[in-house]
Design goal:
There is one protein chain. The chain is an alpha/beta fold. It folds into two domains: 121 residues, Response regulator (Rossmann fold), CATH 3.40.50.2300; 93 residues, Winged helix-like DNA-binding domain superfamily/Winged helix DNA-binding domain (Arc Repressor Mutant, subunit A). Helix content is 40%, strand content 22%. It contains eight helices and twelve strands.
Length: 228
């Protein structure tokens, strides 16, 4: 059985211990801890992780700053822990490259379910190695996307949304279906989150932006060859 390496970053020791105790009960998880952002970045540089659980509010360096630094070098999945549940905060986090959010206080059982969903999606992405549609290329092993040979810096959610669209070409999905399939759980909030991510993804796809087709009154689909 493959072992999933998880890094917990939180300044509250009781939170770290609670998470560690719960998810370590499953043999497939190997858990390490960091008490602040600087320690997390130092550990991250030395070791590889499959997922990071990252608190927003920490002394010395907050979670947003840690996320920015990690995203400069890695697309490792990140779950943010936050005491705030406002949509603005979530959208800000998604733009930085956060994969998921969980609001304190939270159920360890729910956190574990979200960890499993993210790892499952990441693993599934490796089933197909490579796709090229015109000059749009997706390397599923490295999670890299190229447009006309240029590497595009997609956020994890943008990548997962594009991957889902490409794997299901010409199928129309409404916003609720996209939230369920890409976010991996029943999203609590405004479904305009999907529209925000579609807009950002289109900007990155440049001349292929129209391959993501808006089906008015329904949702979106991916259809190659659509002209500007």
């Amino acid at each position: 059985m493959a072992v999933t390496r998880v890094l917990i970053v939180d300044d509250e020791k009781r939170i770290r211990e609670m998470i560690r105790e719960y998810i370590s009960a499953a043999e497939e998880y190997q858990v390490e801890e960091a008490a602040d952002g600087f320690e997390a970045l130092d550990i991250f540089k030395l070791k590889g992780y499959d997922l990071i659980i990252l608190d927003v509010m920490m002394p010395k360096m907050d979670g947003w700053s840690v996320c920015r630094e990690i995203r400069k070098k890695s697309s490792v999945p990140i779950i943010m822990l936050t005491a705030r549940g406002e949509e603005y905060d979530k959208l800000f986090g998604f733009e930085l490259g956060v994969d998921d959010y969980i609001v304190k206080p939270f159920s360890p059982k729910e956190l574990l379910a979200r960890i499993k969903a993210i790892i499952r999606r990441s693993t599934k992405a490796g089933e197909q190695d490579y796709v090229k549609i015109d000059e749009l290329e997706i390397d599923f092993n490295s999670r890299n996307v190229y447009v006309n040979g240029t590497l595009k810096m997609l956020t994890p959610k943008e990548y997962e949304l594009l991957s889902f669209f490409v794997r299901n070409q010409n199928h129309v999905f409404n916003r609720e279906q996209l939230l369920d399939s890409v976010w991996g759980y029943d999203f609590i909030g405004d479904d305009r989150t999907v529209d925000t991510h579609v807009k950002m993804l289109r900007e990155n796809l440049e001349e292929y932006r129209n391959y993501i087709v808006t089906v008015w009154g329904v949702g979106y689909k991916f259809q190659s060859g659509v002209k500007k």
